[in-house]
Amino acid sequence: MAHQKPLAIVAGAGAGLGQSLLHRFEQGGFAVVGLGRTAPSAPVGEFHTLDLADETAVQGKLAQIIKTHGAPKIVIHNTAELVIAPLGDTTLDDFTRSWTSMVQTAFLLGQATLGPMTTAGGGAFIVSGATASLRGGAKFAAFASAKFALRGLTQSMAREYQSQGVHVCHAILDGIIDTDRSRDLHSLDPAKMMKPADIAEAYWQLVHQPKSTWTHELDLRPASEGF
Q1: Cβ of 160: how many Cβ atoms within 10 Å?
Q2: Which residues have CB under 8 Å from 55's CB, separation 6+?
């Protein structure tokens, strides 16, 4: 076990940012494992199809991964469920699905990994947030409320585990991430979008901060983005 590469896990490892994160950490010498509902074509590293909101499935799969690779050094929570609708048109299913896919998944991921990480000497746990983590816009009731809760959960985990050697950070991604899907959905110049590889580089830098200067919250946005 001592001779194995350190492990980086990305939950929500779909095409775009998830795969870019896996690629960056693999380049940096990590064994990488992606988790998600659907495997992308030609996934980077090892990929496990998993319902991250299923308590039994998450506990079982993470225990199996840790048994094989050892405790993770890096864990990144990158799941999202974007619902944009007027309040009156937002169904209860829309609302609960947003919370389940973002807050419940982070809760279960933290429970399954933070204990082993502390026992193994620490590491970093990063959560991908959004503009909606700070501001609830019109037609974003489901998404923003879940992102607010995710931010609070991350703060709580940081205050519990930072003293035990785990750097917990919430990254606010204030902009549209450049993917094939986002180009189809948004009439926006790709030059004004956030590049997944650049976000991955920022995460790489975060996890290598010295303990005397840990960032808990980082906001990233294109130079063209107003704030």
Answers
A1: 14
A2: 108
Single-letter amino acid code for the residue at 67: K
Strands 46-49 and 166-173: what pairing?
unpaired
How do residues 91-116 score in pLDDT, each as one tens digit? 999 999 999 999 999 999 999 999 99
- Alpha carbon 227 to its chain centroid, in Å, reads 22
Q: Domain 7-217: give its CATH code.
A: 3.40.50.720
Residues 6+ apart with CB under 8 A from 41: 15
Which residue is it, tokens 């009439």? 187
Q: Are 8 and 74 in contact (CB under 8 A)?
A: yes
pLDDT at 3: 66
* Cα pseudo-dihedral 213, 163, 34, 172, rounded to 10: -50
Helix (H) or strand (E) holding 8: strand 7-11
Could you tell me the two tokens for 60? 């079982």
d(CA 19, CA 40): 8
